[in-house]
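Render this sequence as a predicted structure.
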Amino acid sequence: MKIEEVKSTTKTQRIASHSHIKGIGLDENGYAIQSAAGLVGQELAREAAGIVVELIRSKKMAGRAVLLAGPPGTGKTALALAIAQELGSKVPFCPMVGSEVYSTEIKKTEVLMENFRRAIGLRIKETKEVYEGEVTELTPCETENPMGGYGKTVSHVVIGLKTAKGTKQLKLDPSIYESLQKEKVEVGDVIYIESNSGAVKRQGRSDTFATEFDLEAEEYVPLPKGDVHKKKEVIQDVTLHDLDIANARPQGGQDIMSMMGQLMKPKKTEITDKLRKEINKVVNKYIDQGIAELVPGVLFIDEVHMLDIECFTYLHRALESTIAPIVIFATNRGKCLIRGTEDIISAHGMPLDLLDRIMIIRTLPYSQEEMTQILKIRAETENIEICEESLQQLGAIGTKTTLRYAVQLLTPSNLLAKINGKEGISKEEIEEMSELFYDAKQSAKILAEQGDKFLK
């Protein structure tokens, strides 16, 4: 086999429009650094977002919401993502768009409540008896099939586990062997088995095998300390929506009718209010006993003006609930009609009573210098070579048109540069691309000039 024929196993992943956002980018005094953590400019909005993060961390944000208001392309979604990044990876972040509520399958209020529950996490701490260690032996023992026939069945499985303190050999049920196969456990892996439920969790490969290969996508963990059989605190993170789904699922038997019933059931089923109240009771009991801790996440509703008066009324009640996430709205509308009404015009298309209880953060248009900085960050994120002169030219285009249009020109210009045999983007590629693709203002101008040629 020739070396050139071997293809790389590296996955080509799509780079999302906000994958460069790593946080809000504030200094230790809470002031915004001009360009930090992927964000540029918008100092006042970022400092306000920093205060929101502090309110959330100190658990003083309950029952409140935030509205990010500003023209299109001023970084509202980026700011919401930055707030979620600042709160940490374990904090649930649930993004949605206002138009998502108009589903043909379930009610508007149900969609809102489902997303509310997705944004509320529950951290459950349990002390369990476990067998933990590095797998030294994994032998399934087979016997003749008791049902007759030719095949053999696994009667039990012998597992050898090793820790820094000692070793133990276990003889376990065949059901645990199935769990081991699902987790793809091999000799040399560090695992733990819960003694009560028999649940198996693979933690990673033992770090004694770390130098086995030059490059591999394996996570190495140290050899566990203490005995093989021990009491261990297991932390599990779930959302309230996960609990709703688990309890709403029919617990039918193995007969054909119950299986058919489950197959015929529609994909999305409405979870009743009664079920949610019961789950809330159990959750509150766990919190009082200190077994669980509530982790309020962030529910981000973009294009909030798309919601109607019914949704706003429902949101009002949901925000006052004892179990509620932090809600961040975003809109680019000024004064407009509230959807679902005939004559009520309000700021941002939201009712005044809801606006009254919201902390509003304003985002402002970017300057040419800030646009150039953002374009430079995007070029680095997408591994695009571009000279300073071309960046300045794109920044000038962004000022005349929009930042989004300037960002969208990056990738096609890069492709054209490669076709032309160049290392990076030059002025010629940008000029050619801006001639090939129109922005919204150019398109509107053409429509105004040649309106008689288009259908009305």
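Summary. Residues 1-14, 252-264 have pLDDT under 50 and may be disordered. The chain is about 35% helix and 25% strand.
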